[in-house]
Design goal:
Structural class: alpha+beta
Number of helices: 9
Strand order of the largest sheet: 1-30-29-28
Largest sheet: 4 strands, antiparallel
C-alpha cells in the first residue's frame, strides 16, 4: 500500500489503458531504469516544475521511493553523468590540494599560494611533461660564480668513491666506494648518518637451499635514488642489484638476473621504474614499487659491455656501449631502439649509411680530403663510456677520445663535438720519449631540462658548460678545481629554502652585518632578509682510481671523498 505521505488529493496521473498505447512509448519495468530517466531530465523538471501532461507517464510515486532506496547506486553513477568540464574542475581541485599538502604548514600564506607557488608549480609541470629544455639559468650562474661554496665529505670511504647521489630536496646523500660500503650523509649537518658494510659471501653447499645475500659482497659501482627519496638501489661487481629502504638501513630485495657486473642504474623521473645496465650487454627493467618489487623485462642490442645509462620522465633510456662505439636510445613502449654511431670518420661507414664522398671532399685528382684545415689534435674514439640526457630528445656522450658530443634523436650524427674537453696527458716511456694521449671523459652530469651540464676527467677540474637556446652547441662557463678522478656527477636545484638550515652553508653578509643576499647582488635583496635562497648543487664522487678499473692511480693530495659545490642562484 502506498505511503500516505506521498498521496495527493489531486489526481495528476493520467489513466492508462491495459493495452499498449500507439504512441510507441514503452514504460521501463525496473526501478533503476526509471531512476535514470528522472536523473536525465533537466534540473527544473527533476524538481517537478513545468511538467506537461505528456511527461507524466515517465515516472510515478514508486520511482521517488526507489531513488531513495538506490542512493548508493546513484552515487556510483555520478561519474557517468559528469561532463568533461566538471571532471576537469574536480581533478584540478584535487591537484591543488596535493600541492598545498606538499608545501607543508607554515611555508606559505594565501597570497603566495595564489600568485607564486601554485602558478610556478603548474608551469613547471607543464614544461616538464612537454619534455623540452625550459630552465635557462646558465647566464645567471655566470654572474654568481663568486657565491660558490664547497663541502667535502671525506671520512666515509677508505677506497675510491665510485658514485654519489643526492635526493631531489637536497637533504640526504648516498655514496659508495670500492670497499663495498654504502654511506648515508645528512647534507644539512654534513655528518654521516649510517653506513651499510659489505656482506660476507655465503658458502655454497650441495643440497642446501641458497639464501639471498642481503647486500653486496664486492665493489659497488652505481647508486640511484627514487624521486621521493624512499628507495635506494645499488649495483656492483658481484652482479647483484639490491633495493634498500632509504630512510634506514633496511634491506628489501636482491635481484640476481644479470650475468656480469652491474655498471649503472637509473630511476625514471616521478616513477618507481628502474633501469639497470650491465657488462653482460643487457638492460633490465624493474618495478621497485612496494606492491611489486620485481623484474619486468630485458632489452638486448649492444655488442659490448654497457658502462652508463640515463633516463628521464618518459619510458625511454639511453646507454653507452663501450667498445661497440654506439649510443642506443631505447623506446620501451614501442619495443624499438635507435642506434647512434660514435668514433672517427670513415669513408666506408659513410658509404654504407647512404652518404659516400661529397663533391666538396674530392680534389681535382680525385683524392679525398677533409673540409677545412686538418686538426692534428683529433683522436679516433674507440670507446663511449658515459652518457647524460638534457631533455627527452637531446643527450650527451663522452669517451676515450676526450670529446663530448651533443646528440638529438632526429639526427644520426652529433650536432656538436667538443674535442679534447679536458686536455692531453703526456706519459713518459723507457726510451725517454713521451706518449701524448687525451684524457677520457669519466663522468657527465646534467641539470635535467636546463642549459647546464658538467663534465669530469682527471685533469684536476670539473668543467661546467652552457648549451645554447637551440640545443645546437655548448660553450664553457667555469672550471672547479677538483684533484682526482671524477667518477660521478649530478646536478640538482633543491626547492627554495631547502638548504637554508645547512650548518656549513654561509649566507653572504650585507653592509650592516646581517646575513642576506646572493653573494653578488646583496643590495638588491637587502630589503628581504628572510627570503628563501635558491641554490644549484653539484655532487661529485672523487677517487684516486677510475670507477670501473685500476688503470691509473693518482697520489699527491688526491683524497677519496664526496664533493658538494653550491652556487646561489636566487633571483
Amino acid at each position: 500500500m502506498p505511503d500516505q505521505f506521498f498521496q495527493s488529493n489531486n489526481k495528476r496521473k493520467r489513466q492508462r489503458a491495459s493495452a499498449p498505447t500507439t504512441s510507441g512509448r514503452i514504460k521501463n519495468t525496473t526501478s533503476h531504469a526509471r531512476t535514470s530517466q528522472v536523473r536525465g531530465l533537466p534540473k527544473g523538471r527533476q524538481n517537478g516544475a513545468n511538467i506537461d501532461d505528456d511527461d507524466e507517464g515517465l515516472f510515478d510515486d514508486d520511482d521517488l521511493r526507489a531513488s531513495d532506496v538506490d542512493s548508493k547506486q546513484s552515487d556510483q553513477d555520478e561519474d557517468e553523468l559528469e561532463t568533461p568540464a566538471q571532471k576537469r574542475l574536480r581533478l584540478a581541485k584535487l591537484y591543488l590540494d596535493e600541492i598545498k599538502k606538499g608545501l607543508g604548514e607554515g611555508e606559505y600564506d594565501a597570497a603566495d599560494i595564489d600568485r607564486e607557488l601554485i602558478e610556478a608549480r603548474l608551469q613547471q609541470d607543464v614544461l616538464e611533461h612537454a619534455g623540452k629544455v625550459h630552465l635557462f639559468i646558465a647566464d645567471l650562474l655566470a654572474t654568481r660564480l663568486s657565491s660558490k661554496q664547497t663541502l667535502h665529505l671525506r671520512r666515509g670511504h677508505r677506497l675510491p668513491v665510485t658514485c654519489a647521489v643526492i635526493s631531489e630536496d637536497g637533504k640526504i646523500l648516498f655514496s659508495a666506494g670500492k670497499e663495498g660500503t654504502i654511506v648515508k650523509w645528512d647534507v644539512l649537518s654534513g655528518r654521516q648518518v649510517f653506513s651499510i658494510p659489505k656482506c660476507r659471501p655465503l658458502s655454497k653447499g650441495k643440497g642446501r637451499e641458497q639464501e639471498p645475500v642481503k647486500g653486496h659482497t664486492d665493489q659497488v659501482f652505481a647508486l640511484s635514488l627514487s624521486y621521493d627519496g624512499k628507495y635506494l638501489v645499488s649495483g656492483g661487481k658481484d652482479r647483484h642489484l639490491v633495493a634498500w629502504d632509504a630512510t634506514g638501513a633496511k634491506w628489501l630485495k636482491t635481484f640476481t638476473g644479470h650475468k656480469d657486473s652491474v655498471s649503472s642504474v637509473a630511476f625514471r623521473k616521478a616513477s618507481y621504474q628502474l633501469y639497470s645496465a650491465s657488462y653482460d650487454r643487457t638492460v633490465k627493467i624493474f618495478d621497485i614499487s612496494p606492491s611489486v618489487l620485481g623484474y619486468v623485462e630485458t632489452l638486448f642490442g649492444h655488442q659490448d659491455s654497457i658502462s652508463s645509462i640515463d633516463c628521464m620522465r618518459s619510458e625511454t633510456a639511453i646507454t653507452a656501449g663501450g667498445r661497440d662505439r654506439s649510443v642506443r636510445f631505447w623506446k620501451v613502449v614501442e619495443e624499438s631502439q635507435l642506434v647512434f654511431r660514435g668514433g672517427g670518420k670513415s669513408a666506408l661507414r659513410d658509404m654504407l649509411e647512404g652518404g659516400g664522398l661529397e663533391p666538396d671532399d674530392e680534389d681535382e685528382v680525385g683524392n679525398s680530403r677533409r673540409k677545412g684545415p686538418k686538426d692534428s689534435d683529433s683522436f679516433v674514439e674507440g670507446s663511449i663510456d658515459t652518457v647524460a640526457m638534457i631533455d627527452e630528445t637531446t643527450f650527451l656522450s663522452g669517451g676515450d677520445s676526450g670529446s663530448i658530443c651533443l646528440w638529438n634523436t632526429s639526427k644520426k650524427k652529433p650536432l656538436f663535438t667538443q674535442p679534447l674537453a679536458h686536455g692531453l696527458q703526456e706519459t713518459p716511456t723507457e726510451t725517454g720519449r713521451s706518449i701524448t694521449s687525451p684524457r677520457w671523459i669519466t663522468a657527465l652530469g646534467s641539470l635535467q631540462y636546463s642549459d647546464i651540464f658538467a663534465s669530469g676527467s682527471w685533469d684536476g677540474y670539473i668543467r661546467m658548460w652552457k648549451i645554447d637556446s637551440k640545443c645546437r652547441s655548448f660553450t664553457p662557463i667555469t672550471s672547479i678545481a677538483t684533484p682526482g678522478f671524477v667518477n660521478s656527477l649530478q646536478l640538482i636545484t633543491p626547492p627554495p629554502g631547502a638548504l637554508d638550515p645547512a650548518q656549513w652553508l654561509q649566507r653572504p653578509r650585507s653592509p650592516n652585518g646581517s646575513e642576506e643576499g646572493t653573494g653578488t647582488d646583496v643590495e638588491e635583496l637587502s630589503h628581504k632578509p628572510n627570503r628563501a635562497m635558491r641554490y644549484l648543487v653539484l655532487v661529485a664522487g672523487i677517487g684516486q682510481e677510475p670507477r670501473l678499473g685500476r688503470w691509473l692511480k693518482l697520489n699527491g693530495g688526491v683524497r677519496n671523498e664526496v664533493s658538494l659545490t653550491v652556487f646561489n642562484i636566487t633571483q
